[in-house]
Amino acid sequence: MADKYVTDEVRKQIGTRSEPRVVEVERGAIRRFAEAIGDANPLFSDEAAARTTRFGGMIAPPTFCRSLGGAIPEIRIDMPEFRGLDGGSEWEYLEPIRPGDRITMVSRIADIQERSGRLGPMVFITVEHSYTNHFGKLCALQRSTVIRY
Amino acid sequence: MAKQTYWEDVEEGSELPKLEKNPTTQQLVKYAGASGDFYQIHYDKDFALTNNLPSVILHGALKNAFLAQMMTDFAGPEGWLRKLAVRYRGMDQPGSKVACKGTVVKKYTEGGNHLVDCEIWLENAKGEKTTDGSATVILPSRAAATPVR
Lengths: 149, 149
Prior knowledge:
The structure holds two protein chains of two kinds.
Chain A: H1 8-11, E1 21-24, H2 27-37, H3 47-51, E2 84-93, E3 102-117, E4 120-132, E5 138-148
Chain B: E1 19-21, H1 25-35, H2 45-50, H3 60-75, E2 80-88, E3 98-110, E4 113-123, E5 129-138
């Protein structure tokens, strides 16, 4: 059966990238994020203690990237009314993110699929986000799935 | 700094040290502020109820952060969380304890790194797995004097 919402026209959006967005990582933002998630690891809040480690200073907790506010490309699907649901994320971490880093974020629509669920047709949208520092090193890759139903 | 686990100390099939959390509505507000996710289902009870939810619910990303914390605690200051994947299976409400747990699935070396693959999940107070996933950490080796990354 043909998909109700994910038409060939909708599928053409796969591969679309957002404009790059650059954000400077503030030390206070890292501390506030660590405090909000209740993570007392000194690597994420205590510069003096973090200096004694091989990192040589504070770094950001793994999921801090989410707070940088990467631009998601607009996804056009003709669903009159829908609810959104966060399906999950897959992360790869390659380099630490540090205070003062200027992180360039780019998002790409990696996949759009329709499946039928208990609540009727559900659209699964996978978006890949890359986080690259000002030395041109890729720090993290995130593959997130959002569900529209 | 926390004590360091070495690759040689880890056994396949062993349990990871669990991480317990007791998220409150205050924590959800803090997380909304720190992450920039202001979807009202996480702090506005009336809004949540009109969206057919039982009450306000935890951000999936907060549960992602809890599981990441369990893994960075396990990796220690000399280790590195290389991969993390989470899938949200069910909703969690503030005011009730959750526990992050995991087991070591596989230990191996690859490209000079000493790696450990883990199966991870988050349980609610009833013992139901409301989030599950996997993680890979690089651990320092007692044999190798080289840094892990």
